[in-house]
């Protein structure tokens, strides 16, 4: 069964679908992404919501290469 998870990142609301048995992992991923976004935002080196999200995604993807 699929579950809808509501997420707010940088003031934007998102609904993400995931299998019920994966919700805990999704919540952990969301938490980590929010932490990374906060780090980038607090550094002041990147301005703009879209750029902050892209930079966070790139930083996270480098971890898995």
Please, how many helices? 2
The end-to-end span amounts to 31 Å
Q: Please list the strands of the largest sheet in the order they lie side by side.
A: 1-2
Helix amount, in percent?
A: 55-70%
Give the SSE order as H and E letters: EEHH
Strand tally: 2
List unreliable stretches of 5+ residues. none
* Secondary structure category: alpha+beta
> What is the averaged pLDDT score?
88
Task: Characterize the biggest β-sheet.
Answer: 2 strands, antiparallel
Shape: elongated
Beta strand %:
15-25%
**Rg, Å, rounded:** 13 Å
Give the key terms.
single chain, 65 residues, alpha+beta, two-stranded antiparallel sheet, 2 strands, elongated
Kindly describe this structure.
The chain has 65 residues and is α+β, with helices and mostly antiparallel strands. The protein is elongated, with a radius of gyration of 13 Å. A two-stranded antiparallel ribbon has the order 1-2. α1 crosses α2. The longest helix is centred in the middle third of the chain and has 21 residues. It starts with a strand and ends with a helix. The model has no long low-confidence stretch (mean pLDDT 88). The protein is built from 2 helices and 2 strands.
Topology:
Elements: E1 2-9, E2 12-19, H1 23-43, H2 49-63
Antiparallel strand pairs: 1-2
Helix pairs in contact: 1-2
Task: Summarize the model shown.
The chain has 65 residues and is an alpha+beta fold.
